[in-house]
Amino acid sequence: MSANPLAPEWLVHPDDANALTPAVWPPSADRDGAGAITVAGASLTALASEFGTPLYVVDEQDVRTRAETIKTLFNEAFAALGSRVDVYYAGKAFLCTAVAKWVVEAGLHIDVASGGELAVALAAGVDPALLGFHGNNKSLAEIDRSVGLGVGAIVLDSVVEVDRVSAAAEKHGRVQAVRLRINSGVHASTHEYLATAREDQKFGIPLADAPAVVAQIRASKNLRFLGLHSHIGSQIFESAGFAEAARRLLAVHAELLKDGEVPELNLGGGFGIAYTSADVVTPIASIAADFARVVSEQCAELGIPIPIIAIEPGRAIVGHSTVTVYEVGTIKDVRVDDSIRKYVSIDGGMSDNIRPALYGADYTVRLANRRSDSDPALVRIAGKHCESGDIVVHADYLPGDVAPGDLVAVPATGAYCWSLASNYNYLGRPAVVAVKDGAARVIVRRETEADLLSRDVGVTA
Ligand code: LLP
Predict the structure, then answer these.
(1) SS3 (DSSP) at 69
(2) Both 228 and 358 in a single domain?
(3) Quick one: 192 and 328 in the same domain?
(4) Following DSSP, what letter does each residue of 300-361 receive, concatenated?
(5) Contact present, 406 and 385 (Cβ < 8 Å)
(6) For residue 56, what are the β-bridge partners?
């Protein structure tokens, strides 16, 4: 069989439509004797029958290992320079109490970006000193609570926040450590909506304004300036953008050192992961080495000491840990030109993974409950929502005998799927099950019909 002309150019017609691409699936993913996909030793068939579908299945050890690896690789790269790297897990990617505990046990800090994310970290028992608080529009209540709790750092995003945080610190009798978020103007190569450091956007302040704002921070006895912060975007494959941002920030960092201490430089997150076999990702070890090289060269040139580096990866820690398992409901062979696209509809959709609809993101899919040697057919995995844009996988090949009742699994759904999930069409959000050494446990339960009705004050019974 040859490639379907409706397939996008990047999609290779598979020799084996049962194969699990290692770069995309959790490393523990395999198939058992019955042909079912297993994650961390647990069969997706068994998990689906025990916990229902759709189901997010998280490989706990994968999250722990990636968190530890990122911390280790960056620290090895900077230890040689006499510095260190503090890793903040960007909780927005996927936060629940279990994940918060795993990353803290791996030695990471957590970056939270709202009172809600803060509440989850606190519920997990995370020491507030390990938290960084982000956001371009923190409410006064969020600032007051964070300062009162003693969060490790607040990232100031605008000039007005200098006074707001200073006043809260005064009220609580504290000195609050702060970073200043800079819009470096670096254009990271990524999807337009994910790029956060172009000039025409809402985050941070222009680099040229930094000295004046830092002077304001230093003038407050209730604030301690940690350093500049830059996050150039998300799902970035090359380190060139980070390097350029580091160069620009360090030039100003050096200026700021003339009037006081600047212990740290925060270069944000955004390290890309492979969603399909077409994504070529720079390994974290190379990114760490690139960061170290650029920072050391630039610091040498400027004649300044190497600061503590902070980074904030989210996707690179949780992205590959999770697969979403769905049950196939209906199938339609839709004729397009002279070819057939098989629409396979599943029991979830844009409510559990909005990324294809929102960013045109590509995912892949595999038959999860069995293997099949049937000829591969080009499929589109559609959700069950009332929108034609409700697509979870735009294009992949599945064995052509895929049938209603089969299970399919979509890998690399650990980041920004659960956290962006909705109740569109009043679908309950799926459960999250963590698997480790063959054993599974629910870490977030499935939303029930009662949950869906719970806030509607017109519901009487
Ligand atoms: N730090 C800051 C200040 C951020 O805004 C973000 C992500 C991160 C760190 C973590 O970025 P990561 O390492 O996970 O790429 N919903 C989009 C991504 C939005 C990212 C928002 N900020 C998506 O699904 O691709």
Answers:
(1) helix
(2) no
(3) no
(4) HHHT-PPPEEEE--SHHHHGGGEEEEEEEEEEEEEEETTEEEEEEEES--TTT--HHHHH--
(5) no
(6) 324, 432
Q: Is residue 207 part of a domain?
A: yes
Q: Is the pTM of this model over 0.85?
A: yes
Contact 346, 378 (CB under 8 A): no
Nearest CA to ligand 1 atom 20: 234
- 417 has catalytic annotation: no
Query: The domain containing residue 211 runs over which residues?
Result: 80-313
- Ligand 1: atom nearest CA of 234 is 15
User: 174 is written with which tokens?
Assistant: 């504290």
| Pair 46, 123 in one domain | no
Residue 358 alpha carbon to ligand 1 centre in Å: 14
Read off the pLDDT of residues 142-201 as tens digits, 9 standing for 90 and up: 999 999 999 999 999 999 999 999 999 999 999 999 999 999 888 676 655 555 666 788
Separation of alpha carbons 12 and 3, rounded Å: 8
How far does residue 271's CA lie from ligand 1's centre (Å)? Answer: 9
Q: Ligand 1 pocket by C-beta < 6 Å: which residues? A: 90, 92-93, 111, 134, 194, 231, 234-235, 268-271, 312-316, 355, 359, 415-416
Q: How many CB atoms lie within 10 A of CB 448?
A: 10
Sheet of 42-43: strand order equals 30-31, 37-39, 42-43
